[in-house]
Amino acid sequence: MDENIESLFKARMTIFEMLSDRGYTFEKYEMDNNIDQFYFVYKNLTNMFGLTIQAYKSNGNIILIFFPLEMKLRVNSIRSMLDKTKYVGAKHIIIVYPGVVTTFTKQHLNTYYNTALRVEQFCVKALQFNVTKHRLVPPHSVLSKEEQQKID
Q1: Please, are residues 95 and 66 in contact by the beta-carbon 8 Å criterion?
Q2: Residue 121 and residue 7: Cα distance in Å, rounded?
Q3: Inter-residue contact 78 to 105 (CB < 8 Å)
Q4: Residue 118 to residue 93: CA distance in whole angstroms
Q5: What are phi and psi of 6, to 5 degrees?
Q6: What CA–CA distance (Å, rounded) separates 82 from 119?
Q7: For residues 112, 116, 117 and 118, what is the CA-based torsion angle, rounded to 10 degrees?
């Protein structure tokens, strides 16, 4: 089996853990339980949205997770993702790219900081395991107002 597909499968599993930890609910498919089924689906993909995950929070917020297939993430792909994001009404997206992000694409993504749309990006290699589950990493939690004031 292709090493890149195995890495993508592991990254997808880590994303599911991240979504659960962040309080999102989502639907898992057969391909998410079995790497052989994932391989079959991956090999038969017809567009970049075939692996997209849509998750929800109890307050109605929607997050989309995109897995573009191209090794170089380009602006045209970002625009397609943003079109889908607007159509769905999501305010938060995660892009999991397999290779590199072009300089022009990085500049384009930077224009979305400090806007209503939150954009996160991860390389597939960075998601091979969930670092927050490592035995040497303490549990992460949101600080209370009092804890925040103590730090300030």
Answers
A1: yes
A2: 16
A3: yes
A4: 6
A5: -60, -40
A6: 10
A7: 90
Nearest-angstrom CA–CA distance, 103 and 73: 10
Mean pLDDT by runs of 10 across the 152 residues of the chain is 87 94 88 86 86 94 94 91 94 94 90 87 93 80 86 79
- Kindly give, in sequence order, each residue whose CB lies less than 8 Å from that of residue 108, ignoring residues fewer than 6 positions away: 75, 78
Q: Give the Cα separation of 19 and 121 in Å (integer).
A: 14
Q: Three-class SS string for the chain?
A: CCHHHHHHHHHHHHHHHHHHHCCCEECCCHHHCCHHHHHHHHHCCCCCCCCCEEEECCCCCEEEEECCCCCEECHHHHHHHHHHHHHHCCCEEEEEECCEECHHHHHHHHCCCCCCCEEEEEEHHHHCCCHHHCCCCCCCCCCCHHHHHHHC
